[in-house]
Automatic annotation (TrEMBL):
Residues 3-471 form the Alanyl-transfer RNA synthetases family profile domain. Binds 1 zinc ion per subunit. Residues 441-454 have a biased composition (Polar residues). It comes from Lacicoccus alkaliphilus DSM 16010. Residues 428-454 are annotated as: Disordered. It comes from the Bacteria. Its cofactor is Zn(2+). Residues 428-438 have a biased composition (Basic and acidic residues). Belongs to the class-II aminoacyl-tRNA synthetase family. Keywords: Aminoacyl-tRNA synthetase, ATP-binding, Coiled coil, Cytoplasm, Ligase, Metal-binding, Nucleotide-binding, Protein biosynthesis, RNA-binding, tRNA-binding, Zinc. This is Alanine--tRNA ligase. One of its GO terms (biological process) is alanyl-tRNA aminoacylation. The keyword Coiled coil applies.
Length: 471
């Protein structure tokens, strides 16, 4: 069945409506009343209020299509067929209503029934937790799958510390031997994975409480939380090699062809640039529409980093001027049926994106001038750009370290990697002690310092450092 991305989203919601689910609207990407997350990163993230009992939903059966941002996948984007930084998760949820058997039966019916997706059953594979005999029996007996298509994986257990947790079961689609990479090239595919078996749907059976003393007890009311990637389903339905070749992305790729004068599909390296740019402009457009803005910290820093990364990749396509802003209308156009707010705010989004791009481009110009003078001084002598020099380019002129390396390589120069890392480390230590000094002055106002520096941000600092290296 040939269906557009929009039709698939509608069909999913329609199916679960028919099964008495209530539709929960796609929530903004910026979490509301939740400091534990930088971005909404899954369907369940916006439904915590129901899962933890703060709010009793009108109907314990819920369906949604939730826009999500995941920065942990950034290095995969453009290089795997299936990862985005912004994507849509289709999900059905049960708050103490149905459990394992019904959630498995529903997922299977949606995927395989001729009235719905109509996927060929023989192409679906299942993973379960090794000790989840209930799940095994349901897939084996009720659904009737042969044993060799049910794979036991130790990692299939959802546990994020204290709170509800439980085993999960995932559904994979066999895309066929053409998708088998003989020797996954770690450089080219940082995931280093074989994408023949495409993960499409995750069913989480939350049945235990992870107690503060580390023990697990059964939950009085068991919940279901599922998530399926819309773009991945679209790639299967439309029988195209990657998510980017679906109608959810093609108009964007065409627009990039227009702007750059390069063709998508000519070579892998260029295609990666097409993919990264189209991915990142979606993320930034939606995030700005939902109230985030580029800046030097938190969410804003993620946006800044995504835009800069896209601009860097645009060099691969020979693009010189600001152009990302000119893709925003296409994002709005593709998505307006379900997400009208991108179109409504498109003038503002374009302005934000254009300013940020121009700012970065002038940073780059300045950096290149400095680089050239360093090059002139070492070219015929050591042939090495020292750690201090690379660090100064990066720290004082905002010139991405990766670019210094690329330029140096082109010019037959070496960069002292270790020296650069040493300088980074020193700077981190300086920042740390500066922060400590600040903290000790703030002890009397604990509430204030808690407010400005939420404790949940501890993991973020290291992400920030890594992210800077990436730029
Ligand atoms: P993968 O192993 O492919 O990275 P995941 O196991 O991290 O996926 P889940 O956390 O289980 O993903 O999310 C549920 C579903 O959401 C996935 O099965 C997939 O269909 C979709 N999904 C997850 N991450 C992404 C992403 N970065 N881009 C597009 N779709 C995604
Ligand atoms: Mg993942
Ligand atoms: Mg996975
Ligand atoms: Mg998964």
């Amino acid at each position: 069945k040939q269906m557009t991305g929009n039709e698939i989203r509608d069909l999913f919601i329609e199916f679960f409506k028919e099964k008495d689910h209530m539709v929960e609207p796609s929530a903004p990407l910026v979490p509301i009343d939740d400091d534990s997350l930088l971005w909404i990163n899954s369907g369940v993230a916006t439904l915590k209020k129901y899962f933890d009992g703060r709010i009793i939903p009108d109907n314990p059966r819920i369906v949604n299509a939730q826009k999500s941002i995941r920065t942990n996948d950034i290095e995969n984007v453009g290089f795997t067929a299936r990862h985005h930084t912004f994507f849509e998760m289709l999900g059905n949820f049960s708050i103490g209503d149905y459990f394992k058997k019904e959630s498995i039966t529903l997922a299977w019916e949606f995927l395989t029934s001729e009235n719905w997706m109509g996927f060929d059953e023989s192409l679906l594979y299942i993973t379960i937790h090794p000790e989840d005999t209930d799940a095994f029996n349901i897939w084996r007996e009720d659904i009737g799958l042969s044993e060799d298509r049910i794979i036991r994986i130790e990692g299939n257990f959802w546990d994020i510390g204290e709170g509800p947790c439980g085993p999960n079961s995932e559904i994979f689609y066999d895309r066929g031997p053409d998708y088998e990479y003989d020797a996954p090239d770690e450089e080219m595919y940082p995931g280093g994975e074989n994408e023949r078996y495409l993960e499409i749907w995750n069913l989480v059976f939350s049945e235990f409480n992870h107690n503060s003393d580390g023990t697990y007890t059964p939950l009085p009311k068991k919940n279901i939380d599922t998530g399926m990637g819309l773009e991945r389903i679209a790639s299967i339905v439309q029988n195209v090699p990657t998510n980017f070749d679906t109608d959810l992305f093609m108009p964007l790729l065409q627009k990039i062809e227009e702007v750059s004068g390069k063709n998508y599909g000519e070579n892998d390296q260029q295609d990666a640039a097409f993919k990264v740019i189209s991915d990142h402009v979606r993320t930034v457009s939606f995030a700005v529409a939902d109230g985030a803005l580029p800046s030097n910290e938190g969410r804003g820093y993620v946006l800044r980093r995504l835009l800069r990364r896209a601009v860097r990749f645009s060099k691969e396509l020979g693009v010189k001027d600001a152009f990302m802003f000119s893709l925003v209308d296409t994002v709005a156009d593709i998505m307006k049926g379900f997400y009208p707010n991108v179109e409504e705010k498109s003038d503002f989004i374009k302005e934000v994106v254009r300013k940020e791009e121009e700012r970065f481009l002038s940073t780059l110009d300045e950096g290149i001038r400095i680089y050239e003078s360093i090059k002139a001084s070492v070219k015929d002598t050591t042939g090495v750009i020292t750690g201090e020099e690379a660090f100064k380019l990066y720290d004082t002129y905002g010139f991405p370290y990766e670019l210094t390396k690329e330029y140096a390589e082109n010019d037959g120069l070496r960069v002292d990697d270790e020296g650069f890392r040493e300088e980074m480390k020193k700077q981190r230590e300086r920042a740390r002690s500066a922060r400590k000094a600040g903290e000790s002055m703030q002890v009397q106002s604990e509430t204030l310092s808690n407010f400005t520096e939420p404790s949940t941000f501890t993991g973020y600092e290291s992400m920030h450092e890594e992210a800077e290296l990436l730029l």
